[in-house]
């Protein structure tokens, strides 16, 4: 009897202790969330301040030079002459030390602007495999080029541009002689487009994280039930030719893999649960892929650097003419199979930035 009562009391005390520990842990989490939220609000303020300041500078420059601002930034890319970066000492850690932008660098929300919610160190980032390998723009083969300890030349530059997809500048895609919107209007149009252009000639580009694309996300898929539109992009897009190999950045296990057929959706997509350390995980979504990704099944083991799929054409990527990989990283497992919201409403933005980390913490500085 007594022993039974002691045991029950023991259990009760244990459950009090557990509850207390849970409350402390919840309080710590809330404190951390509040700190990160404050940081995002500060970032917002800074962004708007910079926007205003940048507009004044651009106006002054434009007036001084006597031409329209829009003509200066109306190319598809902010980068203008290119935004390729120098290869760092580490093979896979893309760093951007040589930005050449026609707008102030601050407008690009430089690397490190967002909370590092996954606690990824530079050392970890250096060990990750690229999700897509950018080609080199300019390889200086002269004898005076400097090499790092791995024998790579330090004056090699990756060939890609940073694209502005806010819709404030023309971001249509040129295919052949035709100018097309990024997202075609119907599924039938997408199928016909892919038939006409099975291998469209396309360079590499990057679409930004936390970019408000209210003029681009026009299909019904981006309206939420309360009537506001999901316009803030919370992944990074890597534009690449159809068929470009897509790699796992780290070892992992396939969480889910499938086809999201709705027009404007991910098309073929995979979510991989990657282990960043013994205790921390991240769920990475690789979207807009070709059907080759379906060879992966939930539960499959994936090795770092393994080809998990290929960039899909317009009829298999959700209807996007600018073929690309959408790469997004979540702190928590997605609620739905092979899906997570790639764009959120302005109201949900602060919370979303704490759930979906800036992918540059994984794939390198980029811009
Ligand atoms: Zn995207």
Automatic annotation (TrEMBL):
Key word Thylakoid present: no
InterPro entries membership: Cell_wall_metabolism_enzyme, Dup_hybrid_motif, M23ase_b-sheet_dom
Membrane-crossing residue ranges in chain numbering: 48-67
Record-annotated M23ase beta-sheet core domain positions: 232-332
Pfam families: Peptidase_M23
Keyword set, alphabetical order: Membrane, Transmembrane, Transmembrane helix
Signal peptide (residue range): none
Keyword set includes Magnesium: no
Full protein name: M23ase beta-sheet core domain-containing protein
């Amino acid at each position: 009897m007594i022993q039974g009562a002691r045991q029950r009391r023991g259990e009760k005390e244990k459950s009090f202790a557990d509850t207390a520990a849970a409350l402390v842990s919840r309080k710590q989490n809330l404190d951390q969330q509040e700190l990160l939220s404050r940081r995002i609000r500060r970032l917002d303020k800074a962004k708007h301040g910079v926007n205003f300041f940048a507009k004044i500078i651009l106006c002054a420059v434009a007036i001084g030079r006597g031409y329209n601002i829009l003509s200066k930034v109306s190319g598809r890319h902010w980068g203008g002459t290119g935004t390729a970066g120098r290869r760092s000492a580490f093979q896979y850690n893309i760093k951007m030390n040589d930005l050449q932008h026609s707008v102030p660098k601050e407008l690009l929300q430089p690397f490190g602007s967002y909370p590092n919610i996954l606690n990824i160190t530079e050392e970890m980032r250096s060990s990750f495999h690229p999700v897509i390998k950018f080609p080199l723009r300019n390889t200086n083969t002269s004898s005076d080029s400097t090499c790092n300890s791995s024998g790579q030349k330090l004056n090699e530059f990756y060939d890609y541009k940073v694209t502005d997809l806010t819709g404030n500048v023309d971001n249509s895609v040129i295919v052949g002689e035709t100018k097309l919107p990024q997202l075609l209007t119907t599924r039938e149009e997408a199928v016909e487009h892919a038939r006409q252009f099975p291998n469209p000639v396309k360079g590499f580009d990057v679409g930004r994280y936390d970019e408000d694309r209210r003029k681009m996300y026009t299909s019904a898929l981006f309206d939420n039930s309360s009537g506001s539109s999901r316009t803030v992009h919370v992944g990074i897009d890597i534009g690449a030719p159809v068929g470009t190999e897509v790699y796992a950045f780290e070892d992992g296990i396939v969480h889910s893999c499938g086809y999201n057929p709705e027009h404007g959706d991910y098309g073929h997509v995979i979510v991989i649960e990657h282990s960043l350390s013994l205790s921390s995980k991240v769920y990475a979504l690789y979207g807009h892929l070709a059907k080759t990704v379906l060879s992966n099944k939930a539960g499959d083991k994936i090795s770092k650097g393994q080809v998990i799929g290929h960039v899909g054409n317009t009829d298999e990527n959700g209807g996007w003419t600018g073929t690309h990989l959408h790469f997004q990283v979540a702190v928590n497992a997605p609620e739905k199979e092979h899906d997570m919201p790639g764009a959120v409403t302005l109201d949900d933005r602060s919370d979303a930035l704490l759930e979906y980390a800036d992918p540059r913490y994984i794939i390198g500085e980029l811009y």
